Amino acid sequence: MSISTAKETLAPQSEAEVCAAIRSTGACVIEGGGTRRIGLAEGERLITRGLSGVTLYEPGTLTLVAQAGTPLHEIDALLAAENQRLAFEVPDLRGILGRVGESTIGGVVAANASGPRRVASGACRDFCLGVRFVDGRGQVVKNGGRVMKNVTGLDLVKLMAGSHGTLGVLTEVSLKVQPLPETVVTLVVPGCDAPGAVAIMSDMLGQPFDLTGAAWLGGKVMLRLEGFETSLRYRVGRMRARLRCAAEEIWGAEACTPIWCGIRDVEAFNDRGGDVWRVSVKPSEATGLIEAVQPEDVMFDWGGNRLWLLMKEGTDLRAKMTTGHATLVRASDETKRRLGVFHPQSAVLARISAGLRHKFDPDGKFNQGMMG
After folding, report:
1. Three-state DSSP class for residue 111
2. Residue pLDDT, tens place only, 9-54
3. Which of the residues 1, 35, 122, 300 has the least number of beta carbons within 10 Å of its own beta carbon?
4. Within the chain, where are the H helices?
5. What is the pTM of this model?
6. Any transmembrane segments, and where (predicted)?
7. Domains and CATH numbers, the chain
8. For the chain, give me the number of helices (H) and strands (E)?
9. At 146, phi and psi to the nearest 5?
């Protein structure tokens, strides 16, 4: 499946070379590992993998600074050696997108890639302390630092996270990391339909159990807790009393990790035909939306706030929706051009977005056509 119409390749090895490349080129498609882009874009490929390496890591202050092209697996390994991790549980979409390559930390931040743990910890952007990027004039912009209070004025850190490379080329990111928990447990509640699943997840998330995952797939609700074993056993007991139904307990990272990686990466849709949509919706409206659009398959994450839908090829999902926000993650290029990848913005938001893009990229060089 094509992801761009880029004809040439630029491969800078330093921030200075990124600046020079942007000044000397026209439209460009920014690429890290090439594993998670979902929008269509046109121009020369500007590959940031040459900007690689962790420049600062202080386990004691839970702070990490890395160049944007640093492979994600290198960061994960470095953190694991210190019994730490990235807090936002980065999804790996290579399976559903049919991609190869290695994800980079710059691509993760640019996509604001956030997995099941968002219900407890927040999104990727909530752990971004600072960024360095090159704007459309070829100038370096720095915002934030190594602590949250360093951000003053316009918070460009939050702005860049989720901008999908439309505002600038990330060259360095600063992140807050977190310790690994002592243990993890997943409660699996079988035999749940969509309304029942939403009711259970909403109730459990509304209690002081500190869930770090709440999902529904294949008729099963999965509820995850992480922390000290003594605390988890107490909370599991309270949850069982509240559930008043059968639930299987799965203990330990070795057993739980495959479950939540499957949810995080939407593995249920791998090697299956059809278009894949990601929908944000109020949990209370999730069941009605499913009844209205009649998907081939569905998975709820974030307690029903994020839905993954497998639809027949070419289906205009948004035409069937009366609520929610839908992103077309996987489809043919023709379908993406016809329907648009990202949800249409309101007139007010469109004006704000256009103004921001003009400010940071006045000549329209970055990822033209990516977000409409």
Report:
1. helix
2. 899 999 999 999 999 999 999 999 999 999 998 899 999 999 999 9
3. 1
4. 15-24, 72-81, 94-97, 105-111, 118-121, 156-160, 194-205, 229-243, 253-264, 283-293, 317-320, 333-339, 347-360
5. 0.94
6. none
7. 54-179 (3.30.465.10), 183-264 (3.30.70.2190), 267-339 (3.30.70)
8. 13, 18
9. -105, 0
